[in-house]
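Is adenosine-5'-diphosphate placement plausible here? Inputs below.
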Amino acid sequence: MRRLITLGSVKGAPGVTTAALAVAAAWPEHADGHVRPVVVEADVSGGDLTVRFGCPHMPGLLDLATAARKEQPGSLLAATADLPFGVRAVASPAGGRACAEAVRLVAESGQRVLLGEGADQGTVLLDVGRVGECVEGLLGASDAVVLISRGGADALAHTYAHLAEAGQQAEQYVLLVVGPCPYSPGEITATLGVGRVVFLPWDPKVADVLAGRSRSALRTSGWRTGRLMAAAREVAQLLTGTGEVGVKGLGGDLARAGAVPSASSFLRRGLAGLATKETGS
Ligand SMILES: Nc1ncnc2c1ncn2[C@@H]1O[C@H](COP(=O)(O)OP(=O)(O)O)[C@@H](O)[C@H]1O
Ligand SMILES: [Mg+2]
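Reply from A.M.:
I modeled the complex. Tokens:
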């Protein structure tokens, strides 16, 4: 059976698709018995892959949705397309009712088609866009949930609210903080109760490659050494258990690159205030 890793944000569009593609592109070759992961675009507000890469959405998510209802759903791999940087993906149509319905069907009954049969190896990186009600069932069925957030107190507060509802499960979550963040990894893990945090640097050069805006950069492998890819490799190692992982947050270079350690406990106070308001106490 494949492993299922769900990636999504609680609010806004912080860079979920970019993170999913970066992690897939950085997946360790020897992980999962050398089987490359598959990114599945299951975002109710629509797919970006077809537009960004000019790849057809058929076969794609609609086929998975159709297969999800069948006795013998067949292989997910029949619905994949190869993106220019070697990542396999199941694309969805760009929004609309058909897309939303397909996400609902895959979320409700698509576990078999996503996870495959006993002999199927590899990992599905499920990009749900937002972790809304529609995909709640899949969160529970996931081997790991990766939340993506920007690093400001406002964005983190929304993530905190979601994690508070997840209770003890929050410890299984990995949080990716995209772009500048004034808080240290330790402060975030301690305050939000999340198991791990990784900072994804703001890196337009690599993001352009991953969004199909910089085909010329693909002629060399230089973009793979960019800061965003270094962080994505750390995430991929974390998710495949192939890296050296600290108990809480990150140690070493990434933490230094992504976070400005904060002397204040502003985040903790801000989020504690939010929790008090929510419980009405
Ligand atoms: N780490 C990053 N550095 C630079 N640009 C980024 C980064 N992450 C995302 N972007 C850009 O932000 C925009 C939204 O990213 P996307 O991954 O599509 O967000 P989402 O899937 O959350 O809607 C895209 O133009 C993308 O290239
Ligand atoms: Mg997206």
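Short version: The domain at 3-279 is CATH 3.40.50.300 (Rossmann fold).
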